[in-house]
Predict the structure.
Amino acid sequence: MGYKAEIKTKKELITGLSTIIGEKEKAKALLKVEDLSLSFIQYASGLRQTELKVISNLSLQAYKGEILAVVGSSGSGKSLLAHAILGILPSNAKLDGKIEYNGEELTQEKKEEMRGKEIALIPQAITYLDPLMKISDQVMGCVEKKDEGLMKKFQREIFQRYNLKPEVERMLPHELSGGMARRVLVSTAVISSSKLVIADEPTPGLDEKTLNETLSYFKDMADKGCAVILITHDIEAALKISHKIAVFYAGTILEIANVEDFKNNGENLRHPYTRALWNALPQNKFQAIKGHQPIQDEVIDGCIFYERCSKKKALCSQGIPQLKKINGGVVRCNNAS
Amino acid sequence: MLNNGKIAGFIGKKTLRLVSLLIVVCFASFMLIQSSPIDPVRAYIGEMPVTAEHKAKLEEYWGVNTPPQEKFLNWAGDIVKGDFGTSLIYRTPVIDVIKERFTASLVLMGVSWLFAGILGFVLGIVAGMKQGTWVDKAIKTYCYALAAAPTFWLALVLLMVFSVYLGWFPIGLSVPIGVTADNVTFFDWFKRLILPALTLSLLDVAKITMFTREKLIEVLSSDYVLFAKARGEKGLDLVLRHGIRNVALPAITLQFLGFSELFGGTVLVEQVFSYPGIGQAAVAAGLRSDVPLLLGIVIFSTLFVFFGNLIADIIYEFVDPRIRQQEASI
């Protein structure tokens, strides 16, 4: 009973908090994720069901004209966040919490209606394209016969803008080079004229030039008024173009910092983990912290970063720290001030 | 995009393989018959009473006492010239018997092959789309049951139900008894084709259904289908757009690879339905020691299965754009 009451107050607190942030920012968030939890139901031995929690109490907002980078190590569940927003999770997934788009709650039906029109995903790799379908058909997507001419024109324009030669239209995915593939994947989002673009790991394995080029596409989108969520493990790339950085750790967001906070020695960063990340970069101290992320089925009562934290207190092992708004950012840490 | 060198290499390789296969098959089946207790003279005279002297003459004529290797070379030499000998039971040239019988069988096999392919593919797609639901379970159960049922048993059951109890179809043969060939209508012939074709295809359906289902489930859990969903595609449209495209090629390839099983099934089905095809002729030739016919049929069925596999290879090597492209880029 007491536990439930606690959850309730916490929810209120978070809701209250995000309204404060919302008011402060003036502009209304295009996408608002509140207290999102995601778990998978699995059959352990025999008929015993277990729940594997992969995302817990995650909150974030995306604003028009801004790039929000969600940065975290591989395997921390970042892609699942994108899948949750788009409603393409597998059937054994259980989603709690609230997702709002443009002030309206995003239910599964709403997601199905919105995706591809209002919300676009830019996938990680070429495997997300049908291996046996021509590129132009894939970029255009499923269009009605009457719109085909118009879409074709759109597609040609976009290809021209992205410096894709006309013969690319007739190619199959395996014939594309890495850079071309990246541009084709970006085109699929641009052609949909979506307001919210979620790019899932769009940069791995790209050379410096292609990387900057790809990043410039996202900047372009934001400049044209889209809200862009950039999911990546490459913090340097994220810092180049993003406005805000959300630090993702073991299925939740520990801090949302403004890009300016990453200047100097990172003394403006709020969470010990964010600071550790910053210090781990080669151009900074190149220091890694000990330990590893908690495994998904580990039950942790308290701060999720407790084990590895250098500033832990007794309080930290009891109950998840509340989200606090500090210096224009949000942090989930008892010690931050 | 196809280069001529590759085609030439492919044809050369396949021709070589066909020739060596035929030589081995001919030699092996000839030696098997040679060491079997078949007596061609006995087979020829049947129940006629003959004197010992007469019999010796016949043995001399049939070459019973020539050494096996000489026999083989004689026979193989004739085969190369296109002379398959004379059938002992039909008393006509083997090649004529095979021509007539094979045509009848090809119609039967073709119809059931096509029917099985289409039905199996559709069932597989439906089951794959509805994975885990009762529709899927029903289709799966049906496939397991069919896969476990012996051909001749299924043929008998169909015959009992549809021909004996219900009387919808004639019991056997490909044309009515006592009607001259000129007076047989298409309908007469077609009515007698349905049951055997149905038996053959029902068995084939199971394999292609299970394969298509498996393949579609694989495709539906792929990244590109997930992305298609993320772009708003859904339901049947999505399956038609991405599923069929990616499942069709392997399914068609498998269907061509199934020629050998099809042929095996035909032998049994034709026997049960007394359908005058190549399978029935093979059984008759075997039971009644008609060596030239039996060997002729062996050669032609080898060719039949070989070409089935060849078509599958061609699809695999030349039709699939991914493989085509890889080859070109090397």
The CA atoms of residues 122 and 270 of chain A lie 30 Å apart.
